[in-house]
Every structure is written in C-alpha cells, then in structure tokens.
Design a protein that fits this description.
Blueprint (H helix, E strand, L loop, with lengths): L27 E6 L6 E6 L4 H14 L5 E5 L8 H9 L4 E5 L9 H14 L7 H17 L1 H8 L5
Parallel strand pairs: 3-4
Antiparallel strand pairs: 1-2
Protein name: IS630 family transposase
InterPro entries: RNaseH-like_sf, RNaseH_sf, Tc1-like_DDE_dom, Transpos_IS630-like
Pfam families: DDE_3
Length: about 160
C-alpha cells in the first residue's frame, strides 16, 4: 500500500504536487470477500508471498469452519506452492479454487473492492507513517464490514 497517483484537479496552469516518500515502507493487503454476505477478510502484511497466501486461506477456513469456501483465484505465482497445497489438502475438500483466465481482474470480485479502497484511502494521500496507512486500511474494511450491503454493491453481488 502506497499513495496512488492519479489525475487530480488544481488551479489553472499549476501542477498539483503530491508528496511521496523516497523509499516507502510497504504493506500488502491480502483479502477475500464473501459474495453472499459482503463480509471481508483482509490481512495486512510486510510481504505478499506464498506463506501469506496460505495464511489467508487458513484464516478463511477458520472463519467458516463448516462451510465449503469457493475462492476466485488468479494465476499469481504466489498461489502455487507446497504451503498453499498443504492448506488445500488440510481443508479436505472445503476449499475450492476457481481459476480465472490470465489477465482478467474484472472477473475477480475482490479487485473491485481494492479499487474502491484505493479511491477512498490511498488516492493522492501521503500518510505520516506506515502505521497510519495500515490504520486507515483497517478502518476502511471495518466500516464496510458493518454495512456489507455496501460491499455487495461495489462487487456487483446481492446480499442474502
């Protein structure tokens, strides 16, 4: 997560300057959204590796201990590994991966939520610290989890 630079409006003839850190500390969001309820599960970590992807899948299994979980899954290299396979085997059929075509983020509901997150939280913003950014991210997802119909609207689902 870092400031997103995008088109902005300013006084005529003056370029809008957005401050950015030289070598920013980074945090990565790994998340999932329940298509039916709009509830989200988001982990913020210093890295986005196979280990963190396996952690996200494990978190989903813990949050939904008796349900079958369907995950829309792109072809990222972090999605294939022994750690991820171990979680899948341990789920004993309760975790079903739905592989999406290469380069098709519009088919993955979480991508629409990430876009909204960037609009509301990181668009042309410089946070005083990485902790302030992580807190803003946490607040965004907490706010939407209190009103899951808002998430369903963003991702094009209808709450049940």
């Amino acid at each position: 997560m870092a400031p997103d630079l995008a088109a902005d409006v300013g006084p005529k003839g003056q370029q809008v300057m957005i401050p950015t850190p030289m070598q920013p500390a980074r945090r990565y969001g790994l998340g999932a959204v329940d298509w039916h309820s709009g509830q989200t599960v988001v982990l913020t970590r210093p890295h986005k590796r196979r280990r963190e992807v396996a952690e996200l899948l494990g978190t989903l299994l813990t949050k939904h201990p008796t349900e079958t979980i369907y995950v829309a899954w792109d072809n990222a290299s972090t999605h294939e590994d022994d750690e991820v396979e171990a979680v899948l085997r341990g789920a004993a059929g309760r975790l079903v991966l739905l592989y999406l075509p290469t380069y098709s983020p519009w088919l993955n509901p979480i991508e629409m939520l990430w876009r909204q997150f960037r609009r509301e939280v990181t668009h042309c913003e410089l946070f005083a610290s990485i902790d302030a950014l992580v807190e803003a991210a946490r607040a965004f997802f907490e706010r939407y989890n209190r009103k899951p119909g808002g998430v369903c609207s963003i991702i094009g689902a209808h709450p049940t």
